[in-house]
Amino acid sequence: MIPSPPSANLQLTADGRLKHFLSIEGLPRSLLEEILDGAASFVEVGDRSIKKVPLLRGKTVVNLFFEASTRTRSTFELAAKRLSADVLNIDIAKSATSKGETLMDMLWNLEAMASDMFIVRHSDSGAPFFIANHVTPQVAVINAGDGRHAHPTQAMLDMYTIRHYKGRFEGLKVAIIGDVLHSRVARSQIHALNILGAEEVRVIGPKTLLPKDIESLGVSVYTELAAGLRGVDVVIALRLQKERMDSALLPSEGEFFRLYGLNNDRLRPAKPDAIVMHPGPINRGVEIASEVADGPRSVILHQVTFGIAVRMAVMSMCISGQESGL
Amino acid sequence: MSQKAHLLIRKGRVIDPNTGRDEVLDILIENGRLVRIAASLDAPGAEIINAEGMLVLPGLVDTCVHLSEPGGGRSGSIASETRAAASAGITHLCAQPNTNPVIDSTAVVRLIRERSFKAGFAKILPLAAMTRQLEGKQLAEMATLMEAGCIGVSNAGTPVQDALVLKRSFEYAATFGIPVMVQPQDAALSAGGCAHEGPVASRLGLPGIPAVAETVELSRALILCEATGVRLHVQQVSCGASTALIRDAKARGLPVTADVSIHHLLLDESALEGFNSDCHIQPPLRSRDDREALLVAVADGTLDAVCSQHIPLGSSSKQAPFPATRAGIAGIETLLPLMLKLVNEGTLTLHRAIELLTSGPARCLGQQIGHLEIGRNASLCVVDAAAMRTPIDDWLSAGKNSPWLDIALPGNVRLTVCEGKVTWLSD
After folding, report:
1. Residue in A closest to B345 by C-alpha
2. Cβ of residue B346 closer than 8 Å to a chain A Cβ
3. What is the pTM of this model?
4. Coil, strand, or helix at residue B195?
5. Residue B169, Cβ neighbours under 10 Å: how many?
């Protein structure tokens, strides 16, 4: 016997319901479909003149962002408010952890304010797992992006987008292009696509941006864009951070765009009805040309709209999972 | 604790890899000196230790312990950690120089020696810093530090990056016959990493440390060892490729020895699943193939010693997301039990396991210890190898950072004698 991990199935209640949402990995297909179906009903709420439902009335949701984010944080805030929750935004850069308070002390203080849910973004992989392992059992933890590890709500909104446009996952070929090494979004997308039954998931990039042994996640690896895009139904471009040039991972943005950047011409090997996605924020002219980002195949702005509905679905499922466990 | 003048250890299975001895014998210690080893001894007035069914071994030698004193604060003291060592049969331990302040002045060496003497639980064999402040720029006063009681030099976990400084360090050490210890890990290739670069780190999104971070640095050290003739001991090898390099160096006759931590023999990268920070160590736990290659290398003699790589940490050091936790396992109390576990599983013979904890590490450190010698102050331990214990039940180290705390392991140390003095006696 060797030591076992502290929490094999931290995310699920004894009867298999979601109580935290930390990672796509290990979740059953039925649960991912439940999130997508739930989101479909919440999309309609956004179209009403009064965009609120009372599912989280009286609940306190804390946005705990240890890393800067505008879009993810505001969509979570909007999602919580549309569910009628009270929302507290904690800007960690200005809070007490910078005065020497430990993360644990801070969590205990927030718990003492009778919080029901923490939405956590952190630059260290595994941070939401650590928090979920240490909070009192009544508090749900949702991962809003941890290090390079996972960004499960982003992946689920991408899945929602794919299902919306393609109607299914069976038979789909999906290509993910660019900086997979640093991308929590890509890791979560790979898990989600494999669980939901996509035919093939490909990653495309230079070897410096592909994690070692990434094949073990269930992807095919391509280093050439044209070969990787041949016959795909969905193209996902990842954001390329400018810092990557400084750390000798790439020579220049220009060379990256020449080899891996998406423009109409280079999209030609993909299926004629292929959709183009991007988790944002976009670097125009680096990973994607404006003619593609703003073109007819792009579904990038719809991803943002669906993001609120998917987050509403995940939050309401976690709260009801928590309550069922009491 | 018993301090009678004479001690008779009865009917234990005495194993000394140094002489190849393995038989049931009595051992008589008079005034601390080991005077006789024979069948059925009589010693009126001596305190009798009944060792029937137990192993009697030379005192265990640990080639890598990180002392939390000076500078460790709440994560233990020389007294607390050497007591933990004594309870685990360890009599001699090699202390790494990366204390605070670092061991680069005779004053620090004196302080460590005085505190360990006062505590009286184990003999500390300190390593001196190879370069001042471990900065890798100027040589430390190696010869002076050796005279003050250090047994070798090392730059600990911060390898000298400048190849010229490294070459000169080796040349200077070779001038005076000073052994050099190296923990091979290239700083640039390992920067920011916290897990083996492989499938588990890729999936968990943990920044990786590739195996080549070790082999690049190890190759450089071996080449400079050959060029300078310095006596080299490689600490905490973690990859299969490193064992091949060491096997080759030994075959070419280089004066090289090497050790591995017990953790790398029992665990691999899969132990990190669920972001288990108790298994966050440096060098990182590597692949299953690496672990298997290390086990082959300890069995065939490529690796000479197994150490605890003891790093006691305060509880807050592990209370953080995985990459933000400090690396290290408090391993001193589980070194022998985990070796016995490998023996019970049939991975190692009992003789080889004992050799790896006694005469092997003694040779690595260039010390005349780790064997049972008539006429000298006795260093030995008496071990009930069949007894199963759960470490947490009687844990002594100030650091509770171990993945093994709740897992029943074989081996209970009944008696430890260090240089003639009883340092541990349990009922």
Report:
1. A1
2. no
3. 0.93
4. strand
5. 26
